[in-house]
Amino acid sequence: MILHIMSTFPPHSETFVMREIRELRQQGWDMRIGRLRPLQRTPAAIGFEDLEAIVSKAGWFSRDMLWGLLYFGFSHPRRLFACARLIAPTLDQPVNVLKLFYILLASLRLAYRFKNAKVTLIRAHFLHSEAVAARFLSILLQVPYSLTVYTTFILFPRPILQAVLKGALFLVADTAQVMQFLERFQLDRACIHRIYNSVNIEDFPLRGPQTRDRPHLILAVGRLHRKKGYHILLRACALLKGRGLPFGAMIIGEGPERQRLMQLRHELCLEDRVALLGKLSFEEIRPWYYRAALFAMPSVVTSEGDSDGLPTVVIEAMASGLPVIGTRTGAITEAVLDGKTGFIVPADDPEQLAEQMQRLLEDVDLRIQFGAEGRRLAECKFDLRRKVELLSNLFRKYCPK
Questions:
Q1: Does residue 95 sit in the same domain as residue 194?
Q2: Which residues of 154-166 are buried (b: 16+ CB within 10 A; e: fewer)?
Q3: Closest Cα partner for 356 from 400, 294, 308, 285?
Q4: Residue 265 belongs to what domain range?
Q5: 203 Cβ partners below 8 Å, 6+ apart?
Q6: What is the count of structural domains for the chain?
Q7: Please, what's the largest Cα pairwise distance for the chain?
């Protein structure tokens, strides 16, 4: 049995994780999902009802937390003490202490529930609370764990992440950028494996003929967060409007930047050109990939150092045969090949973004060429079945049945 730790279930922003779990189950792996907390205000994804049966439900607090604390406190005090030692470096940081203490309580609940189960591996995605919980559970249950890392942005103090990474049986980095990031923690390189985040190619039929006379649509999909660079996209759209170019733009997603983006859209007089559709399900988003002429991913690095890695929506756009314009941010250049599957422009540069968007909007043959090459690359490099095959090989190598 593989126990997969998720912060909550089913989060709208982590559909790629749940698709991976579903595909692993279809390949014959016995999967369970351990949830650390309830959804609360996190938007829920739809279409994953088939996974509900394998989810260990969780409220903010429960009796199992107390039973877990008592059980491990009396039966395995050294394991509990080892978990407490992981928190020790943050004793002078009240916020981190509270976060880690709650993660420990949630881990105790799961450890108590699974103490008699035949768990052979604990899995977690992201180098955040899920990874720390995997470390706690590994200590409590005496079961190895592995992590898939998607980002180079650190939320917890480095000593804690160092301990979490070094304790993992093996690590999966979804891009070369993340591999380089992990290597800076002085880890055994042989235990780090690069497996790209992927999509189910079968979800994206081949694109039909493109008409030359319909309005040109620019598509952007993602959480309305500062790092996505949608403010740059709006300014680029204002430049295109000023040039008299016929186009429309659609931004799909929800988040803390909504009001700021709506205000900027008003200031730039773009209400007739740019629509903010809000949060949509995957089934609602997918048709837009086929209505659009190009996909824009104008990611930036925030003042806190936060940035995108390789957004799943970029891979989805490529799988649908849509040319992509991205920035030299995170790992976007590992999928968007400049002059082959789309264009790469500097971050925070609306003029360059507008220039390349106009070039694609005016050249249907170039769009078809880039889209076809993007689809081919997605099939070869970002296919979910291939990803799961690689993961399965790692499971068999490190944790043979």
A1: yes
A2: eebeeebbeebbe
A3: 294
A4: 201-381
A5: 282, 286, 319
A6: 2
A7: 74
CA–CA separation, 276 vs 136, rounded Å? 41
Nearest to 47 by CA among 25, 16, 3: 16
211 and 191 together in one domain: no
Give the pLDDT confidence score for residue 231 in this predicted structure: 97
Looking up residue 186, the CATH number of its domain turns out to be: 3.40.50.2000
Cα separation of 79 and 84, whole Å? 9
Token duo for residue 377: 């690359």
SS3 content of the chain, % helix, strand, coil (to 5): 50, 15, 35
Tokens 């967060």 locate to 225
pLDDT at 88: 87
- The pLDDT assigned to 46 comes to 84
The pair of structure tokens assigned to 152 is 């180079």
Task: Indicate if 98 and 169 belong to the same structural domain.
Answer: yes
29, 110, 133, 193, 328 from 116: Cα distances, Å: 19, 11, 18, 31, 48
pLDDT at site 207: 84
| pLDDT score of 151 | 78
CA distance 96 to 84: 13
Encoded tokens for 354: 């507008």
Q: Could you tell me which of 268, 265, 294 has the C-alpha nearest to residue 277?
A: 265
Please identify which residue in the block is written with the tokens 């093996």: 170
Q: In which residue are the tokens 């997918």 written?
A: 286
The helix/strand/coil state of 67 is helix
Q: How far is CA 11 from CA 38, 113, 137, 172, 271, in A?
A: 10, 23, 22, 21, 30
What average pLDDT values come out for the chain (401 residues) when binned by 10 residues? 94 90 95 91 83 92 93 96 92 89 96 95 94 97 96 82 95 93 90 94 85 76 94 98 95 95 97 94 93 96 85 96 95 95 96 97 94 96 95 90 59
Q: Is 339 left (phi over 0), alpha (psi -120 to 50) or beta?
A: left
